[in-house]
Amino acid sequence: MNMRIWEDMITDRDRIVIEQGGYGRRTGYGEKPLLLCIDLQPNYIGADAPIEEQIEQWPSGGGAKAWEGVRHILSLRDAAREAGVPVFYTKNVQSRTDAFDNFAGKRKRDNAKFIDGHPCSDLLPCIEPLPEEMVLSKGYASAFYGTPLQSYLITLGIDTLILVGAPPADAAVPLRLTPPQGATGLFMWRTASLTASKYPIRRRCLISG
């Protein structure tokens, strides 16, 4: 069994507390999942080419590795639809009042393609959300901040999130999320992060109620 990357940082005393306190145990999955697809937009996916060849046109795009991930995500999305699992999407966009949003510190570059309504800020054409699949626009590095996502999850009784998407996928994790009534927590399982890294990122965290 592979050692977790943080295990060499905890002391023997820490191990005793963890073991005796019952921390770190698997709690299983919930019964009502939702697939959340993060920022599958031209701005963050770029061209289907090596990242160094497309970075001038798509400075935030992941290139060929990102497109490889997109194809896997489409397969997962199709399986979710077939299984009756709801699917939501986010778009990271800039409002024209960018002095007040998350893009304000990025004015040194041309942000025209990031403004809400520009084709490059829309979802990739291959995504094609169904009418019943929610698309949430966000101006910050969070799918929760300033959006109704948490309210929707509670209303739908969602107790498991499956996260896939572009580099801002980290932003889907809120500081604290109250799970639906009766749930023990909300799993957030990232199955794909479309970074330019050679190694895919896979991690899970449990946000307790």
TrEMBL record:
Q: Which residues form the Isochorismatase-like domain?
A: 34-166
Please report the organism this UniProt entry assigns to the protein. Dysosmobacter acutus
| Lineage, top ranks | Bacteria, Bacillati, Bacillota, Clostridia, Eubacteriales
User: Which PANTHER family does this UniProt record tie to the protein?
Assistant: ISOCHORISMATASE HYDROLASE, PEROXYUREIDOACRYLATE/UREIDOACRYLATE AMIDOHYDROLASE-RELATED
Q: Name one GO molecular function term.
A: hydrolase activity
Which InterPro entries does the record cross-reference, listed alphabetically? Answer: Isochorismatase-like_dom, Isochorismatase-like_hydrls
In terms of CDD domains, this protein maps to: cysteine_hydrolases
Keyword terms of this UniProt record: Hydrolase
Entries under Pfam families matching the protein: Isochorismatase (PF00857)
- Give the family per the record: Belongs to the isochorismatase family.
Task: State the protein's name.
Answer: Cysteine hydrolase
